[in-house]
């Protein structure tokens, strides 16, 4: 082996090829059997590093690769049986350095078996795509990060030179992401594991930062699709942290964060009994871009991400003043947003719930100024609920005369919105009145009567026929004199339970 490395430089090429070909004939599985012992000899570790280097040095030699019954291809075919777990990070980086400067970036896409085997060798020796019961790899995380970094560098070069189609680029990026979610870093607590996986995701996300604008836009959609199809529950959290820390575009960051939070609450992750706590820790928005980030979230409909941000604000300082500040931010946002699709509509319920909760805390202070502010906010909320409950959009000239486009929101959403609007019109009857205590009878103002009639009239409409029971139940709840503003959260929970049982990010308000 030492002789082989001596002839690699400065000797005739024939000597190098002859020695290399001879070394490929050795039964390396047997020679390196000591590597599987609990305490292998230092020589064994050195020999494994030399073997890895040798295979990468020879892998680019066409004569050896194209040879009939090529011993090199035969050796490369045994990659999975060899003991790469002893390769340390310094040696692995040296191998990658040679690979990077002596192989073309197109090797990633090459279909020849030699190219595919070389790629598999680099991947397996890093500790990626290996069976879970195999030996623990030395320096597994930095090696996998180095491998991923190299792959991203080659893909970025191909993209910048126009040598790779968008479809293939998407496919290769998905492969890298797939490898990360099955990677199992050895001997780590949950926090160290989170940071390790996050560092790997960061490498892949650099593809968006390095790419031309059209490609980056395409990959942004690809990442959302991948998240939607491949991950859910706790697995998605390292990617959420990576997106916040590495994506240069604030828009990409806001969109990826929302996709991650949505995936976290996917159906199949239910058995993990997930709460919002892990997300609060994982969403780490850079301070420098926070305002721009919040504006992008509002524009994109990333309402779950904004909800997490508000929870973080509430956790950072538990004072009445801070809670009022958050309530004012939320009320300002509610005036700006209108969900653009059925997928976004239920996210608003979290915001409504938070407004009710924070409003009640402020009214408990018996401060007339605070109570006036709360009344103004609740009246604004009620008018927004009426607006989103309309069957046609009221914006534009046609909207003003009742001929606007059909609302993109669902019938069940309109039931919740009209129900909540009617409830608030009863509990906040005027600009200087609020029902904070139940009474023995209920005096309805004309406005409250109108809101209640609008809700009850839905039962006679054909499009709400499947929600008749829920509408009647809601109307009964609202008319009950024993209910006051304190029961607003229970009323919202009642509506959410019967109309949105499958939406799991609402579980904390049920």
Describe the 3D structure.
- One of its GO terms (cellular component) is cytoplasm.
- This is Ectopic P-granules autophagy protein 5 homolog.
- This protein is mainly alpha-helical and 510 residues long.
- Among the domains are: 1-132; 366-510, no CATH class.
- Helices cover 64% and strands 0% of the residues.
- It contains 26 helices and no strands.
- The protein has helices at residues 2-7, 13-24, 28-31, 42-58, 62-66, 71-76, 89-102, 113-126, 140-160, 166-182, 190-210, 213-230, 237-246, 250-264, 277-282, 290-300, 303-316, 320-336, 342-345, 347-363, 368-388, 396-400, 411-427, 446-456, 468-479, 488-499.
- Helix 20 runs antiparallel to helix 26 (488-499).
- The radius of gyration is 31 Å and the shape is elongated.
- The N and C termini lie far apart (68 Å).
- The model has no long low-confidence stretch (mean pLDDT 93).
Can you give me a brief rundown of this structure?
This protein has 510 residues and is mainly alpha-helical.
Helix content: 55-70%
Query: Which structural category do the helix and sheet elements fall into?
Result: mainly alpha
Report how far the terminal alpha carbons are from each other.
68 Å
DSSP strand tally: 0
The proportion of residues in beta strands is under 5%
InterPro entries: Autophagy-related_EPG5
Organism: Otolemur garnettii
Protein name: Ectopic P-granules autophagy protein 5 homolog
Pfam families: TPR_Epg5_C
Task: Furnish the topology, listing elements before pairings.
Elements (H helix, E strand, L loop, with lengths): L1 H6 L5 H12 L3 H4 L10 H17 L3 H5 L4 H6 L12 H14 L10 H14 L13 H21 L5 H17 L7 H21 L2 H18 L6 H10 L3 H15 L12 H6 L7 H11 L2 H14 L3 H17 L5 H4 L1 H17 L4 H21 L7 H5 L10 H17 L18 H11 L11 H12 L8 H12 L11
Helix pairs in contact: 4-7, 7-9, 8-9, 9-10, 9-11, 10-11, 10-12, 11-12, 11-13, 12-14, 13-14, 14-16, 18-20, 18-21, 20-21, 20-26, 21-23, 23-24, 23-25, 23-26, 25-26
């Amino acid at each position: 082996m030492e002789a082989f490395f001596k002839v690699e430089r400065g000797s005739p090429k024939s000597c190098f090829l002859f020695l290399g070909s001879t070394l490929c004939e050795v039964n390396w599985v047997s020679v390196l059997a000591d590597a599987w012992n609990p305490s292998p000899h230092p020589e064994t570790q050195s020999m494994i590093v030399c073997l890895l280097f040798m295979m990468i040095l020879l892998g680019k030699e066409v004569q050896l690769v194209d040879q009939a019954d090529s011993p090199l291809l035969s050796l490369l075919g045994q990659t999975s049986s060899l003991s790469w777990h002893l390769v340390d990070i310094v040696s692995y980086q040296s191998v990658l350095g040679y690979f990077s400067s002596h192989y073309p970036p197109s090797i990633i896409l090459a279909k020849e078996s030699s190219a595919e085997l070389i790629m598999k060798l680099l991947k397996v020796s890093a500790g990626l795509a290996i069976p879970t019961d195999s030996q623990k790899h030395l320096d597994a995380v930095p090696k996998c990060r180095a491998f991923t970094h190299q792959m991203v560098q080659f893909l970025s070069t191909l993209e910048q030179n126009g040598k790779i189609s968008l479809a293939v680029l998407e496919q290769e990026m998905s492969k890298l992401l797939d490898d990360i979610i099955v990677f199992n870093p050895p001997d780590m607590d949950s926090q160290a594991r989170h940071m390790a996986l996050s560092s790997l995701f960061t490498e892949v996300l650099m593809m968006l930062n390095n790419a031309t604008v059209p490609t980056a836009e395409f990959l942004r959609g690809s990442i959302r699709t991948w998240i939607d199809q491949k991950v859910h529950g706790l697995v998605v959290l390292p990617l959420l942290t990576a997106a916040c820390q590495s994506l240069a575009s604030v828009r990409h960051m806001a969109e990826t964060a929302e996709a991650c939070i949505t995936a976290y609450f996917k159906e199949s992750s239910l058995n993990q009994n997930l709460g919002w706590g892990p997300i609060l820790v994982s969403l780490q928005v850079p301070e420098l871009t926070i305002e721009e980030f919040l504006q992008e979230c509002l524009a994109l409909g990333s309402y779950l991400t904004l909800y997490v941000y508000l929870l973080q604000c509430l956790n950072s300082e538990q004072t009445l003043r801070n809670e009022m500040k958050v309530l004012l931010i939320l009320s300002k946002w509610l005036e700006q947003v209108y969900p653009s699709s059925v997928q976004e509509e239920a996210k608003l319920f979290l915001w409504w719930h938070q407004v009710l909760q924070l409003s009640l805390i402020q009214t408990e202070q018996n401060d007339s100024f605070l109570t006036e502010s709360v009344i103004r906010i609740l009246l604004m909320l009620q008018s927004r609920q009426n607006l989103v409950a309309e069957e046609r959009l009221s914006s534009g000239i046609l909207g003003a005369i009742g001929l606007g486009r059909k609302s993109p929101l669902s019938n069940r959403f309109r039931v919740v919105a009209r129900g909540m609007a009617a409830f608030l019109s009863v509990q906040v009857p005027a600009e200087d009145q609020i029902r904070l205590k139940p009474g023995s009878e209920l005096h309805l103002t004309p406005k409250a009567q109108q809101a209640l009639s609008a809700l009850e009239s839905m039962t006679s409409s054909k499009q709400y026929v499947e929600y008749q029971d829920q509408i009647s139940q809601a109307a009964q709840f609202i008319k009950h004199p024993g209910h006051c503003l304190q029961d607003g959260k229970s009323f919202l929970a009642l509506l959410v339970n019967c109309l949105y049982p499958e939406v799991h990010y609402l579980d904390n308000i049920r």
